[in-house]
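Protein in question quoted for reference:
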Amino acid sequence: MDDDLDSSVETGVDAGKVDANDTPLRRGWTTGTCATAAARAATEALFGGDFPDPVTVTLPGGQQPAFALAWTDRGMDAATGPWAAAGIVKDAGDDPDVTHGALIRARVWCGPAGSGVTFRAGDGVGTVTLPGLPLAVGEPAINPVPRAMIAQAVQEAANQAGQPADLVVEVGVENGAVLAKRTMNGRLGIVGGLSILGTTGIVVPYSCAAWIASIQRGIDVARAAGLTHVAACTGNRSEQAVTARYGLCEQALIDMGDFAGGTLKHLRRQPIARLSLCGGFAKFGKLARGLLDLHSKRSSVDLDWLADQLALLGAAPDLIAQTRSANTAAQVLGLAQEAGIPLADHVATLARATALATLDGAPVAVEVLITDRQGTIVGGAPGW
C-alpha cells in the first residue's frame, strides 16, 4: 500500500455492493469452504462411493452451496491404507483474493481407532511456528472455523457410510508456497504455505475483515514473542522508514494500512509497551482530526482544517489562502516546510492525542512519525 495514496481494500460493503458501473459484485467462497467441500467428496469416495459431483456442504450460517469437483484421485499407502482425494477451484467472486483460482485439495484416510478427525498440512499449506495464533505451534495453518466445518462434513459422510469418523484430513493448495509470499503469513510465523481461513465460509468482495484479522493476529504474535515495541504503518515507505530508525524485526511490523481504529482498539485489549505509528501526512491528518478509518471512501483530506492549523501556528495570510486552494495535502506540507512552519509535528501531536484517547488508558506509550512521499520522516510526536 502507498502511505498517502488511497487503497481500494474497502471499496464494498455487503449485499448490494456494486462496481464503478453499478454492476453488483459477486461474493465468493473461502479457502475453508473449498477445503470442506473437497474433504467431504474425498470421504464419500474413501468409503466406497463415487465422488459426489457437485458436492454440497453446510456453512456456519446454514447455507448449503454446491461445488463442482476439479480433480479427484484415489490410492493405497503402505503405511496408512486406502485414501481418496478431491480438489475444488476457489472462486473468490469479485474480491481481489490472492487464492482466487487456486486448486484447494483434501486427501482423506482412516486414522487410528478413537482418534477422531485430525489434520495435516499438505503441499502449499503452512505450519504454525510462533505462539500467539489461535493454533498451537506445530499445527497446520487450518483455522478453527474451517477445522470445525471440515470435521462436521467428514463426520456426516462417515456416518452415512456406517463408518467411524476416525479420519486424517490433509489439506493442500496448489502453488500455495508461492502464493503465501504475497500474504502476511511470514510475519505471523506461518511457514511453508497459505492458511486455510474463513469464519462465515463466504468471501465478501472488498471486505476489511481479513485485513483487520491480520492486524490482530500480528499484534498477538508480537505479544506472544515478548516484543515490547511494535510499529503500525500505513504503507511500505513508512514501514521502511521506521525499520531504518529502530531496526525492528519483522514480527514487530504491523501492516495497519487504513485501519488505525482496528489497530488501536486491539492494542487497547492486548497492549504492547511501545507503539510507533508511522504513516503519510495526508492519512495522519485524518487521524489528527479524530478519524480512525483513513480510507478515502469514508474520510477525506480537509484543506480548510489544515489551513486553520497553520493559522494557529502563526502562518502568514497568503500561506493560509494557498492552503485552502491547494490540490493535495502533500502540496500543503511542502508549502509549510518552505515557510519553516512545523505543520507535520503539529499534525503528529494531534494524531497522537487521538491514538491515546482510543487506547483509553491502556499501558501503551505512543509516538507518531510522519513521512513524506519519498519515505523521509518529516515530523513526529515523541512518546518516550
Q: What stands out?
A: Residues 4-21 have pLDDT under 50 and may be disordered. The radius of gyration is 25 Å.
